[in-house]
Specification:
The protein is mostly helical. It has 5 helices and no strands. The longest helix has 59 residues.
Length: 186
Amino acid sequence: MEFGLILVGLLVVVVLWAIAIYNKLVTLRNQAEEAKSDISVQLKRRYDLIPNLVETVKGYAKHEEGVFTAVTEARANAISAGAVGSEKQVAAENQLTGALRSVFAVAEAYPDLKASANFMQLSAELTDTENKLEASRRFFNATVRDYMTARQTFPGVFFAGGFAPMDLFELENPAEAVNPKVSFDK
């Protein structure tokens, strides 16, 4: 009788332990999905700000049409890449970031534009959005790291079969991490 109670008690502990591990994996997966959604929210805000910023700069720099076309195309590519998958989206976002650098480089050449209240407000909003996007990406990567660690370590590895692996949000081209040099010397 005593042995039976010990066995039942041990079985209850093992079941509760398994439930806790499973729930931890579900929680981490859901946090990673939420973090991915936060990135999408910031990207949507970025996409909404870009046309306003481009139109403001266009008014001052009519002869810089190639820059604006590149930004518009990069924005469209980034929006459509969001439906394709994270790898293509990362590449498209990196292309868009490069195109935005060109807009700010053009703005540097026009002191009146830099002093424009509309440009300053849009620039500040875009900078704020970029900072939030960076924070969202860091949070996403931290959450994915925790999720993948829980999937790959004991005892989570026994429950990981029903939990798909996730990829970190990374730059495809390490050269894009280097600050660009902006020069107006001709």
